[in-house]
Amino acid sequence: MTNSNLEELKSMALTNPKKKILMLGHDQFGESTTTFKQCEFARDTYDITYIGWDYGTPKFELPNVNVKYISRESNLIVRNLRFFRAFHKEIRNGYDIVFVKYIRFIALLRLFNRKANFVVYVDTLGVMQSRIKRFIFDFTLKLELSFFKNIALISKGIGQKLGIKKFHVLPLGGDCYATNKKEFERLSLLYVGTLANRNILETVIGFHRFIDEQKRNDLPVDAEFVIVGNSYFDELKEIRQYIIENDLEGHIKTTGYLERNRLHPFFEKANIGVSYVPIRPYYQHQPPTKTYEYLISGLPVIATKTAANVEIISDDAGVLINDDPESFFNAICAVKENKNGYDSDKLRAEYEKHTWQRVVNDNFIPLIEELLV
User: Is the pLDDT of residue 370 over 60?
Assistant: First the structure.
């Protein structure tokens, strides 16, 4: 590159600087896959600053993304006042877009920063087991969204549920964790995700029945089930206890929580993904990230037939089931019966449009560009 070309580029950079995007969230940077991937694939286009809590866990870094952490020291009131004060102060530094992942009472921040160009992003409704708590969460969410002109939702279903007419859809994406061609002579099931309120023990019971049926019919027990995940409750303990009590250690493995960079070997070995979400009204429109990641990685999926999974999974991409052990057992039998009908390369090609890079390029960046006009 000549000196004149270099000077020309410097001149262009001065006259056309990157637009400044401020991203606000209650997660420590990297803990929310969605905002992390939005930053990862938009950082070359925009000057991005992210502010969130410091939970004291290992910190993720992305070159060209400025991350600021807020201490959680002191009591609930003090630290939340510090949280919103830090947001308010940073907004005053002047940003072209303030992108907020919904936080309770965020409307107050909007009222104190009327000139800021906000877009508020909602990726979940209330999913608490208590009906009253879900009602309060959803009512408060809808009320606070009324203060914002620009609203982005994870799916159309959430917009319909909240009765919101004008919004943008920012869908989920997924990472590709495996590129090998899958063979299906031996079934290798994989569940990755939280165990909290997902009733994953039901899948273990269904898989246990499949193992027993194989033995009863003098067939080789050519199947395994790996469960990656944990929760703040006792689900993992209950699953492990069931495995031990029924002598299933040779067929079912649990790993606890694993970071994303440790998932590749599990996806490489597996050939069937499990996307098991209880079929409840409050889960219907929550697209599971792992459904996309299984399919992008070439794994057919056994998935409960929530509205979100029904929309995602095509006829040749897996089996949709009810949320009970019997249905899970029947799904394993169906997958085994149809083992020659699955093609991992075709699945990757069909779902490539749902990779995070495509989702950010096709949805997130166009939204930001529209709001910058």
Answer: yes
